[in-house]
Write a structure and sequence with these properties.
Blueprint (H helix, E strand, L loop, with lengths): L4 H16 L6 E3 L6 H8 L4 E5 L16 H5 L4 E4 L2 H6 L4 H13 L3 E6 L3 H5 L3 H12 L13 H4 L1 E4 L13 H20 L1 H6 L1 E4 L8 H5 L6 E2 L8 H12 L2
Parallel strand pairs: 1-2, 2-3, 3-4, 4-5, 5-6, 6-7
Helix pairs in contact: 1-2, 1-12, 5-7, 7-9
C-alpha cells in the first residue's frame, strides 16, 4: 500500500528505461488498484507486464469495495493472490484463494499464488506441511492437462514467501528456499499436474529480496524469479535485482 497516482507515475516513469534495457526476463509491476490505469499508460509499447495485488472472485454484485476479475482484465495481465499479508490481516483462507485462482484463469489473468510458513511453523519443522496444504487447497480443481508446457507460465505462477522473511530484512537462505521448492513445492505440483507441467510452472522466491542478495537466490536451480516487495520502491534496488535475474 504505497504511492499515490502522482507518486506512481513518477516512480514508474523513472524506472521504465532501466527495465527496458534488461532483456531475457519477464518483468511485471503490481501497483495498488488506484494506480493501475496510470501505470498502464506508462507501460504501453514496452515489454513490461502489469498486475494487481488482489481481487475478488465474483464477476459483479453487492460486494462494496471489492474489485472483480473483469475489471482487472481490462487493465492488466497478472494478479497476486493469497499474499501472506492478505492471509494475516484480512483473514484470507486457502479456500478463498482457490476461488480467486479459478476466477482469475477464467478471465485470462495469470494468478501469482503465494504460499509460505510463519516463523512458528518454520521453527516447528512444519514448512513442508504448511506449504503443501496451501498448494493443495489453493489449487484444487485446476485442470492443466490440456495446457502445453509453453503456455503454463501464462496459466499459473507460484511464489514461495516465508512469512517470517517478509519486510523483516531477514531473508531465507538461498539454499533453504531452493530446498523448499525442490522438496515440497515441485513434487506436489508434479503430483497434481504431472512432471512436465510442474517443471514448466515458474516458482518465485519472495521475502526481503534486495540488490545485495538477489544473485544468490537466482543462482539456485529451482528459483525462477522473485516477488519483490519493499525493494521495488527504490530504482537503485529494483533495477539491479532485474539485472541479476537476467543473468541467471
Amino acid at each position: 500500500m504505497y504511492n499515490t497516482v502522482a507518486e506512481a507515475r513518477h516512480l514508474v516513469s523513472e524506472m521504465v528505461p532501466g527495465l527496458q534495457a534488461v532483456s531475457g526476463v519477464d518483468k511485471v509491476i503490481c501497483p495498488p488498484f488506484t494506480d493501475l490505469l496510470a501505470v498502464r499508460a506508462l507501460l504501453e509499447g514496452t515489454d513490461i507486464g502489469l498486475g494487481a495485488q488482489n481481487m475478488y472472485w465474483e464477476v459483479s454484485g453487492a460486494f462494496t469495495g471489492e474489485i472483480s476479475p473483469p475489471m482487472l482484465a481490462e487493465l492488466c495481465q497478472y494478479v497476486i493472490l493469497g499474499h501472506s499479508e492478505r492471509r494475516l490481516y484480512f483473514a484470507e483462507t486457502d479456500e478463498n484463494v482457490n476461488r480467486k485462482v479459478h476466477a482469475a484463469q477464467a478471465h485470462g489473468l495469470t494468478p501469482i499464488v503465494c504460499v509460505g510458513e510463519t516463523l512458528e511453523e518454520n521453527e516447528a519443522g512444519r514448512t513442508a506441511e504448511v506449504v503443501a496444504r496451501q498448494l493443495q487447497h489453493g489449487l484444487r480443481g485446476l485442470d492443466m492437462s490440456s495446457v502445453g508446457t509453453g503456455d503454463v507460465s501464462r496459466m499459473l505462477v507460484i511464489a514461495y514467501e516465508p512469512v517470517w522473511a517478509i519486510g523483516t530484512g531477514r531473508a531465507a537462505t538461498a539454499e533453504g528456499a531452493n530446498a523448499v521448492i525442490a522438496l515440497a513445492i515441485r513434487p506436489l505440483l508434479a503430483e497434481m499436474f504431472g512432471d512436465a507441467v510442474a517443471q514448466a510452472i515458474r516458482v518465485l522466491y519472495g521475502g526481503s529480496v534486495k540488490a545485495s542478495n538477489a544473485a544468490e537466490f537466482f543462482q539456485q536451480p529451482e528459483i525462477d524469479g522473485a516477488l519483490v516487495g519493499g525493494a521495488c520502491l527504490k530504482i537503485s534496488e529494483f533495477i539491479p535485482i532485474v539485472q541479476a535475474a537476467a543473468s541467471k
